[in-house]
Amino acid sequence: MPIKRYKPTTAGRRGASVLKREKQGEQNRARKLIQKIQYKAGRNNSGKISVRHKGNRPKRAYRIIDFLNPIEDKKAEVIGIQYDPNRSADIALIKYEDGSLAYNLAVNDLKVGDIVETSRERVLDIQPGNRMIMKNIPAGITICNIELSPKSKASVVRSAGSNATVLSSEAGFVQVKMPSSEIRKFNQNCLATIGQVSNTDWNLIRLGKAGRMRLRGVRPTVRGKAMNPVDHPHGGGEGRSPIGMKHPKTPWGKPALGVLTRSKNKASNTLIIRRRKK
Questions:
Q1: C-alpha distances out from residue 66 to 38, 69, 160, 233, Å
Q2: Which of 43, 153, 183, 236 has CB 3.0 to 4.6 Å from 229, enough for a Cys bridge?
């Protein structure tokens, strides 16, 4: 997908760029798969801010993606590659033989007119968009949209341009190299999609101005050292003073920036063969 760079006609346009999308089946919509969502802007049921730096985002409609319990052993035709405002990757609208519609994560090289299929029993062709259990996927194949456990929600390797690689299979488990370079084991009966998640140029976009970040629902962030002592542990001091402590802290006084937060007794620790690079 080509990147369009703007001429520096204003300060906001200087250095800004957008993705120039090719319309593929944009006119095809599945209204039953699109629903309204309530945007709470990081606030709890009392209306108080529980997550900072969120709010002022335009309305969005949610597209229901079949991450959980996809239709199996039925061929489907891709009738649209569409933009989804709720995720960085594009989504594919597919139509099954009985006329039912579903949304899937689109992968690279998937185009309108392609036939895709999902199966837990059969060995499918190694082509972009097909989903099958990892036991049937050869070593060296690029995969994405992976289940963490059999028949659960596909929850890893879903962002734009991300992919994992199948390394080997033994004793009911498949070793996979994750996008973070971590090597971990998955149950051989977990579903995975062949290919790399679409929209690989997404990380090359330059927003150019703060207003485009506000449209994503991100509000401004203020440095702790610019605050008063009552508002942040880094606050106070005369002039531009340092934070005055051995390590940085969160607004609530806990260690921040570089502190390991993963539980030492997490159940999935036994499945990790090699940690990601620090």
A1: 20, 7, 17, 45
A2: 236
pLDDT digits (tens, 9 = 90+) for 163-196: 999 999 998 999 999 999 999 999 999 999 999 9
Nearest partner of 248 among 263, 265, 234, 268, judged by Cα: 234
The Cα 140–Cα 142 span in angstroms is 7
| Residues in Cβ contact with 12 at an 8 Å cutoff, skipping those fewer than 6 apart | 208, 209, 211
Taking the model in full, what pTM does it have?
Answer: 0.88
In a 10 Å sphere around its CB, with 0-12 CB exposed, 13-18 middle and 19+ buried, how is residue 17 labelled?
middle
Average pLDDT over the chain, rounded to whole? Answer: 93
- Cα separation values, 127 from 102, 118, 193, 247, 264, Å: 19, 12, 9, 50, 39
C-beta of residue 197 within 8 angstroms of C-beta of residue 163: yes
Write out the H or E segment, with its range, that includes residue 214: helix 210-214
Q: What residues does 57 pair with on adjacent strands?
A: none
AA letter at 274: R
Query: Residue 267, exposed/middle/buried by CB under 10 A (0-12, 13-18, 19+)?
Result: exposed
